[in-house]
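> example.struct
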């Protein structure tokens, strides 16, 4: 009976955690979409710039269509461009991740239709700087909520999840190719400012999104067996143990080493401290790592 109660309690905890994570993701994509639409309407369009990714491509399609006497809705183009890529990447990335990313795209499309913002600046340089920073933050918000703004984010995260390496710089180069077309058709000055805009936004993303950074934990504890048992049962990383002696207390100690992803630090440290409240944990940035390394799929 006790065993059944434990199972029921565990199931409830899992469901509760899932609901909490979904709620966080929902708030993150909503805020991301609102901020993204604000940047497009208050910075990008008034300054005649082109944003990055599929959003920029949608704007470019609309601008080209205007040359031939008709218009293509940016909101509609966003949805049409993102759906095929989302379906192709869905299995390889994560269903929940894909759903919330598409939700972000739908929200952004909706806000672009219904919202109207007054431009903050008339100066082109200020629009580039502040717009680039805020646009980068809109992408970071969605990534922190385990989602994305769709389009090239799908592609970048698909490759990163496969290789474990960030390719945001390659995304930037792809965006530059789109801007070359923009510059050839609508003027190189605005294309140049748009490249600067995208460089700033890309740097914001790479600065605040560290999913694929690795760190080394050096753990000093008297309860090595208990710590390793709790750690290994919950995480898939290897851990090594070396005997040691406390320099001050001269007590028997153990030195544990493990390499983890940076986004796991808080959860793992909390777990270890629950096992040993007197534990000492030192965190080192890991520049290079060779060998097998478990990387959790996007959740």
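> example.seq
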């Amino acid at each position: 009976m006790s065993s059944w109660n434990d199972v029921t309690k565990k199931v409830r905890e899992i469901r509760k955690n899932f609901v909490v994570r979904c709620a966080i993701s929902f708030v993150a994509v909503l805020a991301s979409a609102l901020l993204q639409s604000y940047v497009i309407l208050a910075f990008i369009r008034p300054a005649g710039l082109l944003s990055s990714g599929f959003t920029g491509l949608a704007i470019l399609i609309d601008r080209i269509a205007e040359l031939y006497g008709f218009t293509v809705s940016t909101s509609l183009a966003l949805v049409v461009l993102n759906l095929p890529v989302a379906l192709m990447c869905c299995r390889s990335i994560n269903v929940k991740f894909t759903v919330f990313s598409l939700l972000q795209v739908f929200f952004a499309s909706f806000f672009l239709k219904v919202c109207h913002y007054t431009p903050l600046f008339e100066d082109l340089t200020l629009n580039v700087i502040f717009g680039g920073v805020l646009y980068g933050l809109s992408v970071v918000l969605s990534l922190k909520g385990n989602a994305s703004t769709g389009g090239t984010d799908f592609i970048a995260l698909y490759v990163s999840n496969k290789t474990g390496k960030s390719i945001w710089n390659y995304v930037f180069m792809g965006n530059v190719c789109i801007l070359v077309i923009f510059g050839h058709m609508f003027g190189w000055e605005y294309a140049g400012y748009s490249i600067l805009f995208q460089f700033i936004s890309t740097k914001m993303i790479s600065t605040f999104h560290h999913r694929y950074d690795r760190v080394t934990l050096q753990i000093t504890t008297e309860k090595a067996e208990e710590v390793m048992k709790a750690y290994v049962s919950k995480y898939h990383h290897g851990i090594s143990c070396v005997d040691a002696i406390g320099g001050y207390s001269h007590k028997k100690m153990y030195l544990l080493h493990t390499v983890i992803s940076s986004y796991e630090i808080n959860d793992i440290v909390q777990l270890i401290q629950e096992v040993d409240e007197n534990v000492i944990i030192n965190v080192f940035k890991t520049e290079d790592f060779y060998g097998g390394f478990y990387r959790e799929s996007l959740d």
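> remarks
Strands lie at 214-221, 240-245, 252-261, 280-286.
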